[in-house]
């Protein structure tokens, strides 16, 4: 068992303290998405982890079926307290539900579209995301009050 998995098993990097959004840290589109969520997050509890970082790797190690998945990940708890990970378009819809308000309505409408139609649209955007807004150079440093929500 790796050090990251050991720490996760002891509660260091789990969704127990609120949802975690795992994103591609080398993608400007993804970084802008994180900034959008930070600006619209009324609850202020979602945390962010770059897929390539320690916390992102720990999530992927805990869920071995995710090791080859190239997707945004929304990590949360189900009603029984078990960690659950949403991928592809489901991750986007969960993020919108979390934001609430009009975004929750959009998530409800989006959920009416079957996954077999939603996921190809997600994948098409994912294939060109780095060209849409640049690579890591497009990222900006988080504000001091946002740093605490960024996981290693």
Give an overview in words:
- The protein has 152 residues and is of the alpha+beta class.
- Helices cover 49% and strands 12% of the residues.
- It contains seven helices and four strands; from the N terminus they run αβαβαββαααα.
- The chain has a four-stranded mixed sheet with strand order 2-1-3-4, with helices on both faces.
- Helix 2 crosses helix 6 and helix 4 (88-99) runs antiparallel to helix 5.
Task: Describe the secondary-structure layout.
Blueprint: H1 3-9, E1 20-23, H2 28-40, E2 47-50, H3 54-62, E3 73-77, E4 83-87, H4 88-99, H5 101-111, H6 115-133, H7 144-147
Parallel strand pairs: 1-2
Antiparallel strand pairs: 1-3, 3-4
Helix pairs in contact: 2-6, 4-5
InterPro entries: DCC1-like, DCC_oxidoreductase
Pfam families: DCC1-like
GO molecular function, one term: protein-disulfide reductase activity
